[in-house]
Amino acid sequence: MSYRKCVTSTAHGYDLATKDLEPPFAIVDLDAFDANADDLRRRAAGKPIRVVSKSVRCRELLDRVLARPGFAGLMCYSLAEAVWHVEEGTTDDIVVAYPTADHEALRLLAANDRARAAISVMVDSPEHLDLIDAALGHGHPRIRVCLELDASWRPVPGVHVGTRRSPVFTARQAVAFAQEIVARPGFSLVGMMAYEGQIAGLGDAAGSALHNRVIGWMHRHSAAELVRRRGTVVRAVRAIAELEFVNGGGTGSIETTGAEDVITEVAAGSGLLAPTLFDGYSRFHPSPAALFALPVVRRPSRTVATLFSGGYIASGPVGPSRVPSPYFPKGLRLLGFEGAGEVQTPVTGDAVRDLRLGDRVWLRHAKAGELAERFAEFHLLRGGQRDRAVPTYRGEGRNFG
């Protein structure tokens, strides 16, 4: 029986397992979490998966997935976060996915031998090297750096499809920067990364038939261009520095990225918790693992029930795709005029007629890790039973921006 058909993944099962808890609260279903991890490993087809911490933000869950075969190392979103994980003993292999301007975190890195050996800092311009030199002073200990290649698709001049990240797009640009890194005292070029957000983060089964065909066409052509360009760039940089790793991909592009010869590892995180933004892919169908429960506190009419709190809006372009979605009971939806609010969230739909004050409505967040910024702990469920509560980053008093 697949996880999706388990009887515990129902409103009644979740209500029963958490009957002693007062909402609002958040849960992570470990059966779904583990099943999603297995599916990510299957899709990676032998390439190790570096776990993206921003999509989890809970040390207990990061430890859990890193203990599974096929997963190795963290991809953190903040240098301060990376240093913290080293100090806590989470892993000795961390790539910081975004450049840092945090002088204090750089000084902590430079002063910690274990952290310097474990952490690779992202750079994409000489100015990043200048900033590190300014923070640490000349003669600073050697800092491991990772060169980021822009993986966006530019089919014609002036058209940019993808995230706005590195200014390094061509082999010529990458080689020039790599040469500057290896010639600069205090730096070691140990890796490369290229994140194709236009494939990894944009579903090809999330809209109308025409929309899906357009996105699928873009995926194919963008991936084909990137295979050629990334391969050329990586081989050129390898002639300058002995790279330990070449990272690419995300939950939505593991298959295509992992198939590239030059890629040594793929990155994924959102697929573990399966937020709503990852419902719209044709190649994989993860099981929702993270949910939150809100109580019914008003019945303003026969067709509307109002929940307490709930305005957990996801980052990214403002629109319907960034709001939380009612999940259990089935047949509920948000009101277009009011949406999910700071202190109340009204819902409507066929299931409203059976809701009473104090009943729970279960919702899913649009993005994975951002739910952890709303709750100090996740209540872990296993086999339909409540296991224990574990702190999120917020619960440990950590906020990395």
UniProtKB/TrEMBL annotation:
SUPFAM superfamilies: PLP-binding barrel. This is D-serine deaminase-like pyridoxal phosphate-dependent protein. One of its GO terms (molecular function) is D-serine ammonia-lyase activity. Residues 28-198 form the Alanine racemase N-terminal domain. GO terms for biological process: D-serine catabolic process. InterPro entries: Ala_racemase_N (IPR001608), D-amino_acid_metab_enzyme (IPR051466), PLP-binding_barrel (IPR029066). It comes from Amycolatopsis sulphurea.
